[in-house]
Amino acid sequence: MKKLKIFFAAVMISMGACDSFLDVPNKTLISQDSYFQTDRDLLRMLSTSYSNLQDVRIYANYYWKQRGLLTNDAFTIETDADLAGNYRFDFSLSSGELRGLWSSHYKGIRRANTVIREVPATVQNPDLVARVKAEARVLRALYYFQLVQQWDFIPLRTPENMDAYAIEQVDIETVYQFLIADLQDLIDQKALPVSYDGSEDYERGRATIWLAKGLLGKIFLFQEKMDQAASLFRDIIDNGDFELTPNAEDIWNVNNRFSKENLFEVLYDRDVGGGNFWFDDGVESSEGTQRNIWLEAMGDIGGYQNLRPTQEFIDTFEEDDFRLTAFIRQLGDTIYYRNPRIVGGSPDDFLSDRVDPVVAKGHSSMPVNAIGNNESFPVMRLADIYLMYAETQVGKNEAEAKRFIDLVRDRAFYNPWRDEVLPHKSTQELVDSGKSLLDVIKEERRKELCFEGHRYNDLRRWGMLTTLVDHISGEQRFIEGRAYYPVPQQEIDKSGGLMTQSPNYTP
Questions:
Q1: Model confidence over 178-193: pLDDT tens digits?
Q2: Residue 145 falls inside a structural domain
Q3: How far is CA 78 from CA 24, 86, 92, 277, in A?
Q4: pLDDT tens digits for 19-60?
Q5: What is the CATH number of the domain that holds 82?
Q6: How many domains does the chain have?
Q7: Could you tell me how far CA 504 lies from the centroid of its own chain?
Q8: In which domain, by residue range, is 127 found?
Q9: Which Pfam families does the protein's record reference (predicted)?
């Protein structure tokens, strides 16, 4: 027994002596202290806030699709509860797509808040640290602006409360005041560059001061603070190095990335990442967008046509308005087959009379498959700025408003096949025919920005939701009190009573 005790004592002593040997740091574990060592580390951290914008539940699919179905511009024949219910304003509290929209926006906000809070000021390049945090702040503002276009009562997550399991909601005005203060500070401090030199690929497509000014101007416009909005829009017009793309068809052209028209765009590349866009962020996920497969496979097999243009919307386009040709394909339009699997396909075949009109905006020449296509999504572009600026001048400097509307209309009537602007009415002639200037702006915004997610927000701020009708019966679709989505019930259930549902929705 004595020998046994001595043996155990020796073992314990030897184990104690080996503590330092066994306590080897895990070299594969990345900590905050070890990560932020280089400029690349900072930019990689920030890239997660950008990549989240590519999410299936944001610009790759859900956002523009669901927003489009709320308008009179589009309809769906899908019986899927999320899509059909969205079209009827019959929102399900357990909708998978609405919860996806909610959670993906908050994922982007959390990533931005993490950059703002965690990036240390001790990194070797303090100027880059300041810029990275500024980029995170403007991206957070974009996520929040999109959120409050969809929900009117949301949690306001900041670096200070981001780790709390649940927090109470605030109204839209509270969110706007937070964003106004944050964006104005970024502008005053000149925290973001006006452009990037593009010497490094990772610099292209980043948020600039112009996105901050555009977002702030849009918030003021939505608050009907026209003078403040006008000042920001005019600054962009006069001092930003932007210009309209000459051809409307090239606005979404995959070969027109980093267009001088775009203040900010979400980039897609199907050759980056894994082989399937159904996955979320990660190595298994393609970085392609889903517009091809969800709209229609023109000249290919497949596609769902979840978003189809209504005939009423098609009829709003004037003769020779090339946007109709660029944004929508109709019966009689030539569609060239791209897929060699289509037996007997002729290059001269066209849509048959059994095919409904389809959305062409944002379509790709790439075949439909699970890795998507490469078209960038223009989140904010100069034509939008021109029309918003024109709106701020209604009842003030209307000659100036007409000038900028005409710039958009002149581009609309440019026919690239004939390389000329075809004859069309000026804004003054439209007003002389009996239309109000504001109505002209409303019509131009509808046509110019169709299927980009703007129309429903415009209708709501103009008090025009009661004009939303069924594309066949003509009966009103809008349900009073449902101008915003319901909070996903699962979010309320897990909040422990801190979050509440709108009284217009009941479980």
A1: 999 999 999 999 999 9
A2: yes
A3: 58, 11, 16, 21
A4: 444 455 555 445 555 566 778 888 888 988 998 888 777 877
A5: 1.25.40.390
A6: 1
A7: 27
A8: 39-192+480-502
A9: SusD-like_3 (PF14322), SusD_RagB (PF07980)
